[in-house]
Structure to design on (323 residues):
């Protein structure tokens, strides 16, 4: 009988619980024994694992965060840390691992796969920056949370003739800002993949003001070269350059907390089950994600250390439509 462990690692993402539930129950259906690892790779090193049955993963599909806990483990990045984790797995007779996490976590999966361990990654990060998959668990919720903030700020912005800078998460990737900015009709979108200088943002805001707009929204990805703080600084020094009064809202961890959308729950359920199917077929060393409507796998070697680019034609489209 196969003995499989599941862990969630890196920044949590709404939908991780649905993936834990699906992977556990799909593996139980194969007749396997399942173990949940506490707090990501740190739990492998500390040997904090617990058996998971169908009831242990009941009533969690609708909850954000991860019931297993998550962490970023510096020790796991060392040879010695990984060797300890592998020793603990061997002692428990565990011969397969599902890693639900983002780019950094899948770099960890790759290291285990290189050491000969059967590991399958599940693409899970609000950043949506994993190569080989169109989408990742959590990004739909993160985009919708950002969009709700934009919609709300627009109404108060209109009442006061204000421009709002809205800073959202995404680390080095502009996907959340770009998608929420397009869906929210933002006047300007600033992302790490395409530099926009603060003076150009000011020009676009002034032009919007002169065209008679009653509000303006600038969505700034946290990883943009000129981040929200840099823009605030610029506008403080050029106070009358834009017409609008300016306010900043930083969304921070709001973006990845709370209830997962239906799309994230369904995606996570499909990917969690697909990871188990991969292992059942004896195929591992991959990340499961999607391409189009289908489940797609990508070798961990192609994923580790890479960042998926955003579609810059969408940024240009947003610029044209912000007239
Ligand atoms: O990778 C997910 C993410 O939420 C990024 O968007 C963000 O930059 C980072 O994690 C924040 O990390 P932490 O929760 O450790 O502050």
């Amino acid at each position: 009988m196969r003995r499989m462990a599941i862990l969630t690692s890196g920044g949590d993402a709404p939908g991780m619980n649905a993936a834990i539930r699906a992977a556990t129950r799909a593996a139980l259906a194969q007749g396997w024994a399942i173990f949940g690892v506490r707090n990501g790779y740190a739990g492998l090193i500390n040997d904090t694992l617990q058996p998971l049955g169908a009831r242990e993963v009941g009533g969690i599909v609708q909850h954000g965060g991860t019931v297993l806990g998550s962490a970023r483990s510096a020790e796991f990045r060392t040879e010695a840390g990984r060797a300890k984790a592998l020793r603990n797995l061997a002692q428990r007779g565990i011969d397969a691992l599902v890693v639900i996490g983002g780019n950094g976590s899948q770099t960890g999966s790759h290291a285990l796969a290189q050491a000969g361990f059967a590991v399958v990654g599940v693409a899970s990060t609000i950043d949506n920056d994993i190569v080989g998959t169109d989408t990742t668990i959590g990004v739909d919720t993160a985009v919708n949370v950002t969009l709700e903030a934009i919609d709300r700020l627009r109404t108060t912005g209109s009442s006061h003739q204000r421009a709002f800078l809205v800073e959202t998460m995404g680390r080095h990737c502009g996907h959340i800002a770009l998608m929420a900015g397009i869906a929210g009709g933002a006047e300007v979108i600033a992302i790490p993949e395409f530099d926009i200088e603060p003076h150009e943002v000011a020009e676009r805001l002034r032009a919007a003001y002169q065209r008679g707009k009653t509000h303006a929204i600038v969505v700034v990805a946290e990883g943009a070269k000129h981040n929200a703080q840099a823009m605030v600084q610029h506008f403080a020094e050029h106070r009358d350059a834009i017409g609008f009064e300016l306010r900043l809202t930083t969304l921070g961890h709001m973006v990845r907390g709370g209830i997962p959308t239906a799309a994230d729950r369904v995606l996570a359920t499909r990917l969690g089950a697909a990871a188990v199917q991969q292992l059942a077929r004896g195929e591992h060393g991959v990340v499961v994600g999607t391409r189009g409507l289908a489940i797609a796998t990508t070798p961990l070697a192609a994923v580790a250390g890479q960042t998926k680019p955003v579609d810059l034609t969408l940024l240009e489209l947003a610029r044209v439509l912000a007239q």
User: Anything to note?
Assistant: The CA atoms of residues 131 and 308 lie 5 Å apart. The longest strand covers residues 162-168. Residues 139-160 form the longest helix (22 residues). The chain has a mean pLDDT of 96.
